[in-house]
Amino acid sequence: TRVTPVSTRLRRRHSPRAGGASAPRGRRAPPPSGAMDFSELEKREGVRLSWNAWPSSRIEATRVVLPFGAVCTPCRAMPEMPVLPYGPVVCTECSAVLNPYCMMDYHQKRWQCCLCNTGNALPRNYHEISEQNLPAELFPAYTTVEYQMQNKSPRPPCFVLVLDVTMSREELQDAKDSLGQLVALLPEECFVALVTFGSTVTIHELCETSHGMSKAFVLRGNDDVEQDKLKKLLGLELTPEEHAYYAQNKQRGSHVAEEAGAMKRFVLPVSECEFQLQTVLDELSPDPSPTEKGTRPCRCTGVAIAAAQALVAESHSAQGARVMVFTSGPCTLGPGTIVGRDMSENIRTHQDFAKSNAKYWKQANNYYNSLGVRLATHAHTLDVFACSLDQVGLAEMKTAVDQTGGVMVLAEQFRAESFRQSLKRMFRRDENGMLDMYFNGTFSVFCVPQVMVQGAIGPVSALAVKSRSISENEVGLGQTTSWRCCAMNQSTSLAVYYEIINQHANPIPAGTPFYLQFCTRFKLSDGEIRLRVMTVARRWAESSAAHDIVQGFDQEATATLMARQATFRVEHEEEFDLLRWLDRTLIRVGSKFGEYAKDAPETFRMPGPFAIYPQFMFNLRRSQFLQTANNSPDETAFYRLMMGRETVLNSLVMIQPTLMSYTFNGPPTPVLLDVASITPDSILLLDTFFMIVVHAGATIAAWRKANYQDQPEHEAFRELLAKPVADAAAAMAIRCPTPRLVECDQGGSQARFLLAKLNPSSTHATSGSGGVGSYESAIAGGGGYGGEEKDIGGK
Question: CA torsion sign, 266 to 269 to 272 to 274?
């Protein structure tokens, strides 16, 4: 592939040196720390760093207290990013990719890697490169580029639908309707398979038969199923006798083996099996196994996932695939059992974990972890859609879902609007008609010799890639510089943690640039392979007290990194005092960067870049990620799963919800998370990411009940009522899973969802006997108005 035509076109359109000026031979300098707009940098680079200037020695780095890390969004939509129709140029020493920060020798046709300083020869198709004729990857504005890689055998992804049939006929019909909606959202070239389970596991053939009757294979629900065993049970390979029979006619034998394979019987494109699939779904009925009074139904969820994994491993190994489990209750049979069948036996709680009384926890957790390893080995994903009033075992399945990049969706029933909107959002298409899903990804990081990689936290699994850049101090999934991302979307973010190892005796001049690179290889839904390369440059600072260090602090990215590290440690370290660690870290940060007079606490203040960080930590301490009270283990697992994968902005909303006030006096304004923000003549919009609450003040609610909004002279009131609902709908439309929407009135029962997130700063003890602005007044509705409330998509 010749570089010249592409690069010339790009240079004329975007190069700041169009017109014949020469490009510099040296490396471009990073932007000065004091002038950084972190959100704008993220739009251009796809990365946010906790510190945008780093101290130049290990000793000074420890004095900074907070972690050095990056929150990377590998598949973020970047309209200005070029897509190059050729492969990358790679360093022979460190495997980093050619980028604008590399030094070029146009005469010798060589380049020097900015990460390891190794000299490399340019490939032959770059022989026309010059200062006036640059390829796109060397343009100063293109620090993030994407390459189109060759894929000789592209194959669309596969979706294995695993449906629980141990439910009532009405619930099963709702589940079948949801699956029909899902299939309608899939592109016709995508593959699909169907597995149902109850007391047994049923794998359905989706091919058309001459006699018009569909065939299904039934497996026992109390035995694990692996790939080799499933091949024999389903007849997916020739027997020794058949091999001997077709030894003389290998062409005929190959044809017979192909016809018996999984992709001719169980896994077919939607365009070929949609009618047969819908027919099978229509004929499904609730599990016939009897359920005695006082017992739970037999449900072999673990074996069903194992069978689906084995089936898709046989047909789509190392190709994009998702195992999508739709369940209505906990596993009670076979490996992966969460709870016994006797209803007198309660499902485990957080108290049971604390007292080591969770009878099935260890075995179930180990089993689902092993399933996660099987799925990740073949680059496949596990998704769990739980529609039940009871727990279903998400706490045990969390690791398997997380390490395969899957999603969890919690709802009370399959007909819930939030559940169906989540499905619709998950299978949305881009402007080219492809799914907003990326499959079989590999995420690799590269850094300069003075920096080592401690680990990563996110929906990934570690790969056994050894490098000299691996740190002994592990954070998250460490001991590697590459991770597998079985599935991603545009909002999937990964947190990478670094350690500075340069010795104090080997000083680096202040202002010297250093570089980090993030390379993500993934497949689109049509099978095309892409490689996105993101290279960032920042500066070394002389010491931890340097001005650049303070001005380059990104408190939002740091709060996200700390939240991920805290949730990861609380799940994986049994003897870890989380709140004490957070408090001590915050105290050390205040001692290092705070400004105060000795023995005068009222003079304490944090500099501008640190101003909101203590507030983030305060809300993190009392958040559902660290506090388990009033949440089931399944809910806690869901919250922590989402914290480990969302962008910085979404993570901040989870940590510290936003509260907007709508009044007649002007546009919506943000207000404090405090009961003092509740007033009778305002509407509040609370966004916690998982739930959105529209709360009408007592006076507003009374006017609405009097139908003032229907009168022509009160159009302003009608607009005031509609604005927060429209903003809530806009926020819900871009999130997956879709948050729950609660509309309530001051004094109503569901106003508790708002009050639970507010600081009760004013009580009867501080505001007199239920005075205006008191906590009791906020609950009672001030003027005494009650209120009926509406919960959209909930109870």
Answer: positive
